[in-house]
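Format notes (please read before filing issues)

Several people have asked whether sequences and structure tokens are stored in separate files. They are not. Every record keeps both together, in the order shown below: the sequence lines, then the token lines. Line labels are part of the format and must not be stripped during preprocessing.
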Amino acid sequence: MRAGKPSPTDAAAQRNSTRWPDAALLGVSVLLLTVFVLRALTGVAGASAQRLCATWISDAIVLSALVVCARRAARDRRDRAMWTFAALGIASWGLGNAYFEHSLAAGVSLPNPSPADIGYLAFYPLVYVAVIAARRRGGVHLSVGLWLDGAIGMAASATLAAALVLDPVVQATAGESLAGALTNVAYPIGDLTLFTMLVFTTATVGWRHARGLVLLALGMMAFSISDTLYLVQNANDTYHAGGVLDAGWLIALVLIATGAALPGNRAHARLTRVVAERALVPSFA
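Then the structure lines:
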């Protein structure tokens, strides 16, 4: 063995030493998420526990996910752009959510739009870039057939989301100011765009061997679904902070952080042009 070249055992030990903080953060996040879900389902300890979960426990999970993604971006040059923008999106959403939840806990009535909306809405362009970086990272030549597969999936998901979400949200804008109405409509459009981008990317890239990318996509999809359910509940005035729905965003963050903590898999850079899972999106659509 040449001098200065680490042995396989030393290299493995170094990788493990750099990843144990991620595992610890994920363990804490899962524990806190379990507490959050159990409290939301049982209502134990009343309003004080609800406020604690909606504020500080949520903040801790957001911070853990942010740190794990930032660490992955710092050590992985190949996927740096994807995880950097994922981390920035989490940071933006986390700041908006912290302002929103802590204001509600303090009894402050927020206008529409409020400063929290800046953080929430900035999440979308940041994660769009992360999804684009993930697609470019797949290294797949997009033939006409793959473009059509992605377009079919996008059209189907857009139709479904528009039918279920846009109508009640638009109706809820009645009586709002122009800024408030535009803010309300921006969320379903942002979620619809994110969801269709994920469908298109899955249809064209497949991500057969990319576990981190799969979890990133699942996390962002869970984010989009949670946002959509919130918009419908908020339009019907049935949303309650700290409830079960809020766990959806936190689950999404844990999924994204888990994807960032997994070791990189170089096999996904050599995906074949046709893999079985690419047929799922157009077939389902």
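For reference, the curators noted about this record: Residues 8-42 form the longest helix (35 residues). The two ends are 55 Å apart (CA to CA).
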